[in-house]
UniProtKB/TrEMBL annotation:
It is found in: Mitochondrion membrane. GO terms for molecular function: proton transmembrane transporter activity. One of its GO terms (biological process) is proton motive force-driven ATP synthesis. One of its GO terms (cellular component) is mitochondrial membrane. It comes from the Eukaryota. It is a single-pass membrane protein. InterPro entries: ATP8_metazoa (IPR001421), ATPase_protein_8 (IPR050635). This is ATP synthase complex subunit 8. Belongs to the ATPase protein 8 family. Keywords: ATP synthesis, CF(0), Hydrogen ion transport, Ion transport, Membrane, Mitochondrion, Transmembrane, Transmembrane helix, Transport. The chain crosses the membrane at residues 6-24.
Length: 54
């Protein structure tokens, strides 16, 4: 069964992850986010929900 032979696929998988972790990940992480999260006033609604069928 050829799909169980890990010879070509293991090398492709490991080289892909190596490229991702060494080259692409620092480039992606170096970008600054455009929308920084801010602290919002989280107002808790204490009014109960009025269901139309009750």
């Amino acid at each position: 069964m050829p799909q169980l032979n890990p010879d070509p696929w293991l090398m492709i998988l490991s080289s892909t992850w190596l490229i991702y972790t060494i080259i692409l990940q620092p480039k992606i992480l170096s970008h600054l986010p455009t929308n920084n999260p801010t602290n919002k006033n989280n107002k808790i609604n204490t009014n109960p929900w009025i269901w139309p069928w009750t």
